[in-house]
């Protein structure tokens, strides 16, 4: 599966950086992260409808 067909979800800056470097779509969880294509405040905000909308809009 090509990286462009994947979503990476991380709560650490190093993880977001690695996801972006790989070519995957990045979702950051928590405050203080930069570079994530979608940033959510907590895992409570991580829902299938939100991921689906993100997938369709990127």
TrEMBL record:
Gene3D superfamilies: HAD superfamily/HAD-like. Its EC number is 5.4.2.6. Keywords: Isomerase, Magnesium, Metal-binding. It is an enzyme of class 5 (isomerase). GO terms for molecular function: beta-phosphoglucomutase activity; metal ion binding. InterPro entries: HAD-like_sf, HAD_sf. It comes from the Bacteria. This is Beta-phosphoglucomutase. It comes from Escherichia coli.
């Amino acid at each position: 599966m090509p990286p462009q067909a994947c979503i990476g979800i991380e709560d650490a800056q190093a993880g977001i950086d690695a996801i972006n470097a790989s070519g995957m779509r990045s979702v950051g969880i928590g405050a203080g992260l930069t570079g994530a294509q979608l940033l959510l405040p907590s895992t409570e905000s991580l829902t299938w409808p939100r991921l689906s909308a993100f997938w369709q809009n990127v």
